[in-house]
Every structure is written in C-alpha cells, then in structure tokens.
Amino acid sequence: MKKVLFKRSALLLAGLWFSAAQAYVVEVVEIPSQSMAKAHKATVVLPDSYQDSAKSYPVLYLLHGHGGDYRNWAERTEVEALADKHQMLIVMPDGNINSWYVDSSFKPNSNYQRYVGEEIPAYLDSHYRTLAQRSGRAITGLSMGGFGALNIALAYPTQFIAAGSTSGGVDPRGFEGKWGLNEVLGDPLVHQDVWMQKAIINRIDGFKQHNLALIVDCGVDDFFVAANRRLHQALLDKGIAHTYIEQPGGHNWPYWAASIGLQAEFLSRYFAVFDSPKNPAP
After folding, report:
1. Which range marks the domain in which residue 44 is found?
2. What phi, psi does 190 have (nearest 5°)?
3. Which pLDDT tens digit goes with each residue over 32-89?
4. In the chain, how many domains are there?
5. Torsion sign (Cα): 154, 31, 80, 130
6. Which of 169, 146, 152, 160 lies closest to 230 in space, CA to CA?
7. Which residues of the chain have pLDDT under 70?
8. How far apart are the C-alpha atoms of 250 and 123, rounded to whole Å?
9. 30 and 41 in contact (C-beta within 8 Å)?
C-alpha cells in the first residue's frame, strides 16, 4: 500500500501540500519483511526530477532513534529538501522503538538488521528507479539509528558505499538497562560477548577492509560524546580513513536538523552517476 504526500510549504488542498519552492514528492509505503513475517511503514522522498526523467537514482537510507518511527525525520527537520539538492531518493524506514537495528537472539521476530540491510533495498530496487548497486546506496541515522547505520553497513558491506552516524550510541556498554538494550542484546552479565561484539569500536577493521566511507559526528554536550571520541581515536590509531566532527549541541533535534545536511553532503559524494537504466556506472 502506498500513500502519496506532496509535502510542500504553502497550501493544503485535499490532503496534499503544494508549493513552487520545492518539487520533491513524499510517499508513505509499507515494506514487507519475510524475516519478521510482517510489513512496516517507511517514508520515501523522491527528488524533483524523478517524475519527468528516465534516470535511476542513488538512495540514502536514514534511520530514526530510540522511541521514534518512520515519520520522525520528516516531521522534525527539512530533510526532504536534500533529495532535490543531491538528486537522490531518501528512505526513512520504521525500525521499531527499540530494535537497535540488530537481528536479536533474545527478542522474537526482531530482525531489523536484515530488514534494513537486505529486504528494504530489495524492495526499493524493485519498486523505484534506483541505482541498484553498492555505489548507489549510503546509510546514516541518529542515536540508536547512528549505531544501526554503522552496524548494518558493517554487516552488509556489499550493499553500501558509505555510512554515517550522528549522535550515535556506538558502544552499548555503559548503558546497560537503558533504551531496551537488554531486550535485544540479552543480559549484559550473561551475554557479555554479545555486547562486546556489537560495539562498533570492536569492529572497525571492517571499514578499512571493505573500503567503506565513514562520517561520525556528535554534539559536545551529548551523553554519547565520550563513546564517539573513543571510536574516533581507535580509527586514528589504526589509520582508518574517516571524517569526525564535533559541534556545539546536545542529544536533540536542533542538533540533528543541523547535522543531517553535513551528513548528506559527505555521503552523496560517493554515489556513482547513473543516467540511464541501460548504461550503469562501472
């Protein structure tokens, strides 16, 4: 099922927003998951040229944080305009309120790592004119979604050319008992190995091994900033290329609204150019 919303800023008419200032199209779709035997909603933004072109487009996968859903980014920021600016699709899937975008051995039917890393790209590639290759996909997100983006990029390195995290909970250790982490990673005393394995800092060799472009940013007043600084230092120590940014701000929407423009600018640099379905980039 698809619900089409032309989200604009001037006039509301029959449930559709219109404005000459922006030409992107916002759709709400339901994307099925075979691994979880159910469908979840996602917001998909099409750039201004999509309707009048035969081109295929790269896709930015943008993940929400803990307690959020597929509507958050579009409701709280002007992220849709980035689809026009960078001529890309933006998909904002529903990752449940506390899935942490992992395939959990402890929470039944919580396979959001596979869902976002495998099932959603397959759906997008079959229902939209996407650049259906690694160089046509990037992934980022905020907080839980920042962890999720890096986790999924490392789990599916052939799916994504670049990954990012803003205010990411990149190391769950130290936050035991919070935000549903125990539900998806297990008792931290009994399953310490799972918590260790999921910490991004313990998996950074994958960024270099798979040549994943990487950007990480965090506010200086964010409660996750210490973990992000440790990740940055570990990447430096191993000589792993990345961009790391700290800016004034905390763990909040004003910070994320400012950050997403930087993230999109960085990630879109790695997209291949794809002018025709019959003439894919190498």
Report:
1. 23-268
2. -85, -35
3. 999 999 999 999 999 999 998 899 999 999 999 999 999 999 999 999 999 999 999 9
4. 1
5. positive
6. 169
7. 1-22, 273-282
8. 35
9. yes
